[in-house]
């Protein structure tokens, strides 16, 4: 294999792919990156048996071929090269990477030991990458940690994508929080579809692709999901379990006992301040309503704190409810401007929505009010 490629292109692709490689793989060859050169492109791929990344880069191929090179070495070496064209020559024993005044020789791994990469399914539609990265990144925070999402909880460890018509719905839950974002979706056909992808995987992928339009495949079968841009394709496993039926946990505003409106940023800061005296992250804060004022209390048995903000309320005088502060704060993060919350009882979930935005909904489960 012999090719010439831009240093920045190669270094960026190697760095991104190397970050997705496993630290302690089952097979040593999985610490390598596969380069496949032909025509006017070179494909750089990484694979950890769950997620495969493929970056397609412009290159002048003098001799087509393939080589597997240590991902760490390739990322470090290409980043250290001067800007400009880079020559890469590889045979069965070694790869030489040369730039003006600089040359590195690296060992290559056995190509036949590198596992076959999964074939990405065709795209089903397109979504704005920046919007998807924000929605998926936020949803992933509300998913259950992977080590806890086992057995019948398996589905809580993923971010669920569902396409229907011109909407893409992004959802996640850890049983204590539910988040749902609705994004504009440009389908290729009339079929609906869904995917359930491990939260950390899809968050990392969407972040990588945030600057581009993203094509997503809904194949109708479990096993493989693909997100792609013109230069990058990421194929990852899907979760074998079903996503929980979270629709029934969204409270009906018409059945609420009362509601309140407040500035979302101000409420988040108030919750954070009140929690400063809490001894543990899971220790709750208590929301107390009195006419047009909301008091948030934190601490118990010693250090205590309270912070007040104005709030428009209906039928909530004397009502108290407690939440884990980091959970409530996380649900307020995407909201710009006013948030409206509907309450039923102190033991039932509350619904949160932005006052002027119908693309986001969230549910927060309360906890026992500390005595």
TrEMBL record:
Gene3D superfamilies: DNA Polymerase III, subunit A, domain 2 (3.10.150.10). The keyword Transmembrane does not apply. Residues 157-245 form the DNA polymerase III beta sliding clamp central domain. The keyword Membrane does not apply. Its main location: cytoplasm. Residues 260-368 form the DNA polymerase III beta sliding clamp C-terminal domain. It is found in: Cytoplasm. Residues 1-118 form the DNA polymerase III beta sliding clamp N-terminal domain. Transmembrane segments: none annotated. It comes from the Bacteria. Keywords: Cytoplasm, DNA replication, DNA-binding, DNA-directed DNA polymerase, Nucleotidyltransferase, Transferase. Belongs to the beta sliding clamp family. PANTHER family: BETA SLIDING CLAMP, DNA POLYMERASE III SUBUNIT BETA. This is DNA polymerase III subunit beta.
């Amino acid at each position: 294999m012999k090719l010439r490629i831009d240093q920045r292109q190669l270094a960026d692709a190697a760095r991104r792919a190397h970050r997705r490689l496993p630290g302690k793989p089952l097979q040593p060859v999985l610490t390598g990156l596969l380069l496949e050169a032909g025509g006017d492109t070179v494909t750089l791929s990484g694979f950890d048996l769950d997620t495969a990344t493929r970056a397609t880069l412009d290159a002048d191929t003098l001799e087509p071929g393939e080589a597997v090179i240590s991902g760490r070495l390739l990322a470090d070496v290409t980043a250290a090269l001067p800007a400009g064209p880079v020559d890469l020559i590889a045979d069965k024993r070694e790869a030489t990477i040369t730039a003006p005044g600089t040359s590195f020789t690296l060992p290559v791994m056995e190509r036949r030991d590198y596992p076959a990469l999964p074939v990405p399914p065709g795209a089903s539609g397109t979504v704005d990458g920046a919007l998807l990265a924000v929605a998926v990144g936020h949803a992933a925070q509300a998913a259950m940690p992977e080590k806890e999402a086992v057995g019948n909880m398996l589905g809580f460890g993923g971010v669920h994508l569902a396409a229907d018509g011109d909407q893409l719905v992004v959802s996640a839950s850890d049983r204590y929080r539910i988040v749902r974002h609705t994004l504009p979706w440009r389908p290729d056909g009339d079929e609906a579809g869904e995917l359930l992808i491990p939260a950390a995987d899809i968050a990392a992928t969407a972040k990588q692709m945030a600057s581009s339009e993203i094509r997503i495949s809904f194949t109708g079968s479990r096993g493989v999901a693909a997100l792609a841009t013109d230069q990058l394709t990421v194929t990852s496993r899907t979760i074998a379990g079903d996503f929980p039926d979270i629709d029934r946990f969204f409270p009906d505003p018409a059945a609420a006992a009362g509601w309140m409106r407040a500035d979302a940023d101000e409420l988040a800061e108030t919750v954070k301040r009140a929690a400063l005296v809490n001894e543990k992250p899971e220790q709750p804060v208590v929301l107390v309503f009195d006419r047009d004022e909301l008091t948030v209390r934190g601490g118990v048995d010693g250090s205590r704190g309270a912070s007040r903000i104005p709030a428009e309320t209906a039928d909530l005088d004397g009502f108290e409810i407690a939440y884990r502060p980091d959970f409530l704060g996380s649900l307020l993060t995407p909201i710009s401007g006013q948030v409206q919350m509907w309450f039923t009882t102190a033991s039932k979930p509350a619904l949160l929505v932005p006052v002027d935005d119908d693309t986001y909904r969230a549910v927060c489960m309360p906890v026992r009010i500390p005595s």
